[in-house]
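Researcher: Before we compare anything, I want clean individual predictions. No alignment, no superposition, just each chain on its own. First chain goes here; please echo the sequence and then give the C-alpha cells.
Model: Echoing the first chain and its structure:
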Amino acid sequence: MRPIIVTAFMSLDGVMEAPGGEPGHRSSGWTFKDIELDPAAYELKGREQEEAGALLVGRTSYEAFAPVWPSMTEEFPGYNAMPRYVVSTTLEQEDPRWPATILRSLDEVAALKESDGGPIIVHGSATLGHGLADAGLVDRYHLLVFPVLLGAGKRLFSDTDKDKQPLEVVESQTYRNGITKIVADVRR
C-alpha cells in the first residue's frame, strides 16, 4: 500500500492559503514576507520530491500549478517527471502543459493508494486534504509551521466533527527563522 502524505506550509493558527503569493488572500505570500530565508528549513521539500512516487492535487491547485510548475525545472524536477493525479468532479480534461490523470472520487484515490509505487504526495489542495483526512486516507503530514498568525483563510484541517485522531511525531525541528518542521504519522 502506498502512503498518502499531505504536505503544507501552515501558519501557527492553521491557515495554509496563499503561501506563495497567489492573488485573492489579504496575506498572500506570507511564507517569504518578513521571514528570514533559511535554506535548512526547506530540506524537507527536496526530500519529498526524491521519495515521492506520485503527486496528487485537487482541481484548484492543479489549475494554479499547471501553467507554472512545468517551467520550474530547477525547483520541481521530480514533480514534473512523476505521475500526477488530480481529484475533481468538474474538471473536463487535463491541462496539456502539465498532464495528469483525473480521478473522480475518493474511492478512486483509495484504489490508487492500493496500487504499486512510492508515496503519494498531496500539495496545497485544502479541500482535497480535508476529504482525504475525513475518509481516513492520510498516513502522514509534512508540515512547515511558520511563526505568523493569519486569522482568516483556508485551514489545513477540516472542522468535521469526528473522533480524536492520534498522531506520532517522527521528526521535528525549529529553525533559526522560527519555522518549525513537523513530520507526523497518523496512528490507527
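Researcher: Okay. Second chain, same rules.
Model: Second chain and its structure:
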Amino acid sequence: MAFDERTEELAVKAAQGDQGALNELLRKIEPDVLRHSSRFLPCRQDAEEACQDALLQVARNIHRFEGRSRFSTWLHVVVANSARSTYRSLKRRSVEQAGELPQQRPDPRRTSVIAGSRVDILDAMEDLEARKPDLIQALVLRDVSQLEYAEIAEQLNLPLGTVKSRIHEARKQFRQTLGDSYT
C-alpha cells in the first residue's frame, strides 16, 4: 500500500484529533485495506471481516500514529495484525462448530491452489508466532506487505541487521514447516 501525500496528510490530521480527516481517511484507504487483507485470507468474506476490523483499529488507534514513518507503513502492521487475528478467530469458530479439532489440513487439491497455500501459510504464521513471536512481524512486513528492509527497521524500531536476521530466521522456520512449497 503506497498512498499519495494527501492520504499521508489526512493521517497526520486524524492523529491530531481531526474527526473529518479521520472519516475521509477511512473512506480513502478502505479499498486498499480490503485488497491487502485478501492477500492473507483466501475467502472474500473473511477478508472483508479483517478489513472492517482493521478500519476499526485505525479509527480507535490513529492517535498512536506518531508520524515517525509513513502512514502506509503503520497501516501495513495494523492490517497484517488484523488479518492474522481474524484468521485465528475463524479457526476457533470452526473448531467450536465442529466440536473437535480438525484432523488434517485442507487438501489443496480440493480447493484452489492459491487458497490452499494461503491457509498453509497462515497456519505456519500462527505456529511461528507461538514459538518465536519476535520473528513474525518482520517476516509479514517483508514477504506479505513487501516493505523495504529500512522501512521495516524504522517501523519496528530495530537495527537493520536485526531485521535482516529475523527475516532470514523466519524464512528458515517456514521452510521447515512448509517444506519446499515455501520459497
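Researcher: What stands out in the second chain?
Model: The mean pLDDT is 81. Additionally, Residues 71-98 form the longest helix (28 residues).
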